[in-house]
Design a protein that fits this description.
CATH class: Alpha Beta
Distance between the termini: 13 Å
GO molecular function, one term: 3-hydroxyisobutyryl-CoA hydrolase activity
Number of strands: 5
CATH superfamily: 2-enoyl-CoA Hydratase, Chain A, domain 1
Pfam families: ECH_2
Largest sheet: 3 strands, parallel
Strand order of the largest sheet: 1-3-5
Shape: elongated
Enzyme class: hydrolase
CATH topology: 2-enoyl-CoA Hydratase, Chain A, domain 1
Keywords: Hydrolase
CATH architecture: Alpha-Beta Complex
Catalytic activity: 3-hydroxy-2-methylpropanoyl-CoA + H2O = 3-hydroxy-2-methylpropanoate + CoA + H(+)
């Protein structure tokens, strides 16, 4: 399973894509659970991933609805790889060629 974050991913999109084996972020990636900013809890299974983020960063994201860019995603372990947006098609072709 490969999840590619090349833009805004919020709410249920985060919950569905965060469980991929490979999670690729580009410089355009912006993830957030905006429902958390208004006092609701994160849904769609994202709590599992947030609880495993280092240094309390998952708790911070869950309590504030903070928006996470590519650097945050890599630091937190939510993203497993970074690919510049202009090389995304090339990377997708390489992944598709893997048997």
């Amino acid at each position: 399973q490969v999840s590619v974050w090349d833009g805004i991913v919020m709410g249920g999109g985060v919950g569905l894509s965060v469980h991929g084996r490979f999670r690729v972020a580009t410089e355009k990636a912006l993830l957030a659970m905006p429902e958390c900013a208004i006092g609701l809890f994160p849904d769609v299974g994202v709590c599992h991933a947030l609880a495993r983020m280092p240094g309390g960063s998952g708790a911070y994201a869950a309590l504030t609805g903070a928006r996470l860019g590519a650097a945050d995603l890599l630091f937190s372990g939510l993203a497993t790889h970074y690919v510049p947006s202009e090389r995304l098609a090339e990377a997708a072709a390489a992944v598709a060629a893997v048997d």
